[in-house]
Amino acid sequence: MKFNFISKILICASITMLFSSCEKFLDRDPLSEAAEKNFWKTENDALVGLNAVYTALPGERDFWRDCQSDNSVMTNAWGEGGLGYISMGNHNAATAYVQEEWRYDDIRKCVYYLQQLSKMSFTQDLKNRLEAEARFILALRYFRMVQHYGSIPLIKDKPINLDESALPRTDKNLVLDYALENVVYAIDHLPEHHTGANLGRINKGAAYMLKANIYLHKASIKQYHEGAADPQLWKQAYEAASEVLKMGYGLVDDYAEVFKQANNLNTTEVILARQYVEDKITHMLPVLASPAGTGITGNGWASFCPTRELVDSYLCTDGKDIRSSNLYDPAKPWENRDKRLKKTFMLPGEHVLRPNGKYAAYQPHPAYNMGEKINSEGGGITGYMYLKFNEPEYVKTDAGFANWPIYRYAETLLIIAESLNEFKPGDLQIKTMIDQIRKRAGLPLLSNSDLSDQAVMRKLIREERRHEFVAEHKRYFDILRWKIAEDVLNKNAEGINSNQNDLIGDWTKPRFLAQNRKFEKIKHYLWPVPQSSIDKNKNLLPQNPGW
User: Fold this and answer.
1) Which of 436, 447, 442, 441 is nearest to 410 (CA)?
2) Residue 42 above 70 pLDDT?
3) Which family does the similarity line name (predicted)?
4) Mean pLDDT, to the nearest integer, of 375-396?
5) Half-sphere exposure of 537 (CA within 13 A, CB side)
6) What is the Cα–Cα distance from 521 to 467, expressed in whole angstroms?
7) Which of 29, 195, 311, 450 is most enclosed, with most CB atoms within 10 A?
């Protein structure tokens, strides 16, 4: 097998080094005398060190985090330190999971790397590129923490241990300004594409996507939270994303293939992905996404389940929702629908692979007493499960290796459409961008009347983002920045119809309750600063509003 650069570096057993693993080395005391004397000498040292920094990129765990939104439910809400509590509104500053996004270990790792790199001497062009990759990761981590916590401590030049410092929080806008400074450096020094052994490294397109996302966030907060729309911020998001249009990316024909292991080398649509390698660097998505009794092994934990509201929100092929379309048949609810519906989910009545190698109907209702029945071990709690990021034919269900897409070209198109609709509504390019997404989904192209109505377009763009990025952990950040979380997360999560005799697609009938949810707008748009960090550094006070 031919491994790409991350595989070569992170499989540390194959590297002769003075330390046991790349990541552990970067996690050790940055001021270690041994580290200073015995490493950071050669170009290869710089490469090895940087690839340990790459572990700070988001990965498959973001699949889990979609349950923080109205898309998904975690079967055992208390698991992973209370991940499932976020959507329920049951978390607080002492909830263990709240610490998970407070990633100053990653910040320290990035800053330490940049400090050491600055002292090294080798080819300047390569040194600039490696610095650009590290600065991209630093910017991404700061941006993500601002999205969760708002104002946070800002560490720039020295790898400080935050818990041992007395650093106060820096205004979130200054943190984002610093993130943008790093992104601009990355844009200036990264190539558009990598090839060969460097395939998978951070590139210029990824840097532009990060820049676009930061401005999209800033524009949304200004408009929806502060009531002070700033067309210039939307324009900057648009301009950054538009640069990616020039780089040769496109949509692949089959939506489902983007998320398969066999597609790991796809660089047509995927701009940047966290890299995985069969039997070497793996994850558990196949077993987490599957219910028991399905797939070639029959092993499944059903850990995360799509909500009924999400499934019902997919349009019919005439572009109308299920409540208004003449094409919708409650007895055959999966027909004449957005193609992404069947490619994303296991749906009641649809045939799925079984351990005997044959296909049979997926029947999660308890009346059928199948392995996938809801509210049982391995059955989940809504009656819907995932095909996206799943590999039913793969026997190593706890060792999946599909890459995790951080940025896809589909997001480029939708950022352009959303930002244009806000600062230049009615522009024909909005239709051009969205039509590419809708064509692949089997939906009708936009009409001129749609395009001329900004409110209609805003709703439509938001629907496209939701359905395109299910399970990719985009939705949670979207409902926060649009300030609609107070609406969508104050509705209970539900599953399939509770009466076996009711048509499975009849939305008027009683359903199984999956989860009670609550979102308090005065506090839940930000997470609390973790109590464990405040206990060590009182300068992190005051706590976020409401906490």
Assistant:
1) 436
2) yes
3) Belongs to the SusD family.
4) 96
5) 16
6) 25
7) 311
